[in-house]
Design a protein that fits this description.
The complex is a heterodimer of chains A (256) and B (398). Chain A is of the alpha/beta class and 256 residues long. Chain A has a single domain (2-99, 169-255), classed as P-loop containing nucleotide triphosphate hydrolases (Rossmann fold, 3-Layer(aba) Sandwich). Chain A has helices at 15-21, 57-64, 86-92, 108-118, 123-136, 152-164, 182-197, 209-215, 233-238, 245-255, and strands at 2-12, 30-41, 46-50, 72-77, 80-81, 93-97, 170-174, 201-206, 218-223, 226-232. In chain A, strands 6-7-8-3-9-10 form a 6-stranded mixed beta sheet, sandwiched between helices. In chain A, strands 2-1-4-5 form a 4-stranded antiparallel beta sheet, covered by helices on one side. In chain A, α4 packs parallel to α6 (152-164). Chain A is globular and about 50 Å long. The two termini of chain A are 30 Å apart. Chain B has 398 residues and is mainly alpha-helical. Chain B folds into 2 domains: 2-38 and 176-395, no CATH class; 55-164, D-Maltodextrin-Binding Protein, domain 2, CATH 3.40.190. Chain B has a 4-stranded mixed beta sheet. In chain B, α7 packs antiparallel against α12 (310-331). The longest helix of chain B has 39 residues, at 177-215. Classes of the chains: A alpha/beta (256), B mainly alpha (398). Chain A binds chain B through residues 11-12, 14, 62, 65-69, 87-88, 90-91, 93, 95, 97, 99-106, 110, 114-115, 117-120, 162, and chain B through 2-3, 6-7, 10, 13-14, 17-18, 215-217, 219-227, 392-393, 395-396.
């Protein structure tokens, strides 16, 4: 379970950044990336955080993964307060980004073992999980190959295993299919479904409406740091004034 | 500590599989230093030998006024007199490399010598030419002639030769060979290990901070249960280890270079060096290297993590490698010694303490002050590094 209450995140804007942004720079000395948002992701359901580029999706996910600290508001992950006990929150999370976040000079097994060691997994349990996941994703053939020598599809598989090797209760995906081909994206979609079926809390950010329609049980639409919609997929469909998800999304964001 | 060790092990594997780090940590100190040193020593020695055997072309102007000197020059097989050179052309010919030097005897020379007065002889040479062979040869032959004239006068006037040697200085140098070598080797060693320690640590440090940020893997690490302190310490220990390894390998490289470059060096000299570099001395130098490596590593990590890319970090840190060498160069200046003040100046204290440790003249108080200064600085640098690694603006600059 992830619970976000009245979450706000301001970033200080340095003089250098202000110069770089030019006319697009914020007026004050701070930039509000998230402005008092609240939502809840339940176990066994897939929560889709939607929004155009710069909406604040990545900031929200980084706050949930305790990489950033909120300016105000609270986040609870698996019953743990993210501000008070960030380390315990990270123990309960599997976090996956679109760029895979893999170390090119490690072998596949070394990479997965590193993640497991950071989560202090029991060696016997790790070996069991590794064998099962490698077999399920057909990875044994390249288990000892360096990551730099893998294809993008193979890398994505490694990234998946790295994310869930410690069997986290909460899985967070930051635009996981943003730069992937159809075949590789399918692997991610299957993983999200599998996590949901195992009763995990799944939160993923995207701007691909097809994925939202296919996977999400709950939806939140974020734009300029504010929530424009938050509810179940059925509720979203019930209030739609346009035929497709994409048209409705463009309409909502355009109106804002 | 468990996660720090996990990060340390992973970063160590990562670093030793990086070609750039291996190049600066192993290849440069272990191969580059001996090759450069051997080449430099061999070429210098060969050039000196060649210069010593080379014949020097000179002009002798006014030979009729000093026929004995002319005879002596003619008798020297390495001096060749070029005939028909006018005094007015001497300078131009030497500058044009047509002549190496010249002796000019003025017309009043024989009269002044006969009158037991001081006579003068002019010599021309070019001091910028290699090894000043012409000057040395000309001075040598004139000094011999001068001695001959003075001996003649002493004999003729029936004087005691000791009359002109009022004081016979009896030299008693109480410095041991260890002290002498300590001041020379000890001055050069810190220069080598500071450069290699900083360069080795720099590439590893950039790779593990700015490089990780650029590759997008930092987010993976930050989302793991490891705390910022554990992340910093894991990386810090690897960078420090690479720095120390680079410094030690540069010492090995230096030793190999001297061994290969100077085959003629007597075995006794190596025995003395081996005696000096005993376990105690090496251990004492190593204890100076540890806090220095800690200081460098933390400083490099703290600065590199602020950069957006490897290149940006490199352009920030490369000029710093010149700055850190300045205190070492300062330590090579005459009169700069390890005392209660200089022992508190980082890098300079390592440079001066190394000299004193090798010489065997180190004062325990100065050594303790050096340790305190370095450990305080290293601790502050690590703390500073953790602060930077915890700042959102630093980690997520974009």
């Amino acid at each position: 379970m992830i619970r976000v209450d009245n979450l706000r995140k301001d970033f200080k804007v340095s003089r250098k950044t202000r110069k770089e942004l030019g006319s697009g720079a914020p007026i004050g000395k701070t930039l509000t990336a998230l402005d008092g948002i609240s939502f809840e992701c339940k176990p066994g359901r897939v929560f889709g955080l939607l929004g155009p580029n710069g909406a604040g999706k990545t900031t929200a996910l980084r706050l949930i993964a305790t990489m950033l600290k909120p300016t105000s508001g609270t986040i609870t992950v698996a019953g743990v307060d993210a501000t008070r006990e960030p380390q315990r929150v990270r123990e309960a999370i599997g976090f996956m980004t679109g760029n895979t976040g893999l170390y090119d000079r490690l072998t596949v097994t070394e990479m997965v073992r590193y993640q497991a060691d950071l989560h202090r997994m029991d060696p016997v349990w790790f070996e069991e999980r590794r064998r099962a996941l490698f077999a399920a994703l057909d990875m044994e053939a390249f288990a000892d190959r360096r990551i730099a020598r893998l294809s993008s599809g193979m890398r994505q598989k490694v990234s998946i295993v790295r994310t869930i090797i410690h069997d986290p209760a909460v899985v967070v995906f930051d635009e996981p299919t943003a730069s992937l081909d159809v075949m590789t994206s399918r692997g991610i979609v299957n993983l999200i479904r599998q996590c949901r079926d195992e009763g995990k809390t799944v939160l993923f950010s995207t701007h691909i409406m097809g994925e939202v329609q296919l996977l999400c049980d709950d939806i939140a639409i974020l734009h300029n740091g504010k929530l424009f919609f938050y509810g179940s997929k059925e509720e979203f469909e019930g209030q739609m004034t346009h035929r497709t998800y994409e048209d409705e999304f463009i309409h909502l964001v355009g109106e804002a | 500590m468990g996660r720090t060790l996990t990060i340390f092990k992973k970063e160590f594997i990562d670093v030793i599989r990086d070609r750039r780090t291996i190049l600066t940590m192993v290849v440069l100190p272990l191969l580059f230093v001996p090759v450069i040193l051997t080449l430099t020593l061999k070429v210098t020695l060969r050039q000196r030998e060649k210069a010593d055997l080379e014949t020097v072309n000179i002009a002798f102007i006014g030979e009729e006024y000093a026929p004995r000197l002319h005879q002596a020059v003619e008798a020297d097989s390495q001096l060749v007199i070029k005939l028909g050179v006018a005094e007015a052309d001497v300078e131009a010919l030497i500058r044009a490399d047509s002549l190496d030097g010249a002796i000019v005897v003025p017309p009043d020379f024989p009269d002044r010598v006969a009158a037991d007065e001081q006579a003068s002889i002019g010599i021309y040479y070019r001091s910028s030419s290699s090894f000043d062979v012409a000057e040395r040869r000309l001075r040598g032959v004139i000094d011999d002639y001068d001695e001959e004239i003075v001996d003649g006068r002493i004999r003729r006037l029936q004087l005691d030769p000791d009359l002109f040697d009022a004081i016979a200085v009896q030299e008693n140098d109480v410095a041991t060979l260890q002290e002498v070598l300590g001041q020379t080797i000890g001055g050069f060693l810190p220069y080598m290990f500071v450069i290699f320690m900083f360069t080795g640590a720099m590439y590893a440090g950039i790779d593990l901070s700015a490089g990780e940020k650029e590759r997008g893997t930092l987010e993976t690490l930050l989302s793991s249960p490891a705390s910022r302190l554990e992340i910093v310490l894991g990386k810090f220990f690897v960078v420090a280890l690479v720095g120390i390894a680079s410094a030690l390998l540069s010492m090995v490289g230096l030793y190999l270079g001297v061994r290969m470059g100077l085959e003629d060096i007597p075995q006794e000299a190596f025995d003395v060096i081996s005696d000096i570099l005993n376990v105690k001395v090496i251990a004492m130098i190593a204890t100076l290297l540890l806090p220095l490596a800690a200081f460098f590593s933390a400083m490099i990590l703290a600065l590199a993590i602020q950069a957006k890319s490897f290149k940006q970090a490199q352009s920030t840190l490369t000029p710093l490698s010149l700055v850190v060498i300045l205190p070492v160069l300062f330590g090579l200046l005459p009169g700069i010694e390890l005392n209660t003040k200089t022992a508190l100046i980082p890098i300079l204290n390592v440079s001066l303490a190394t000299k004193d440790v090798i010489s065997g003249t180190i004062e325990p108080l100065h050594l303790v002050l050096s340790y305190i200064s370095l450990f305080v600085l290293a601790g502050a640098s690590i703390w500073f590094c953790v602060v930077w690694f915890s700042r959102e603006e630093t980690l997520f600059r974009s």
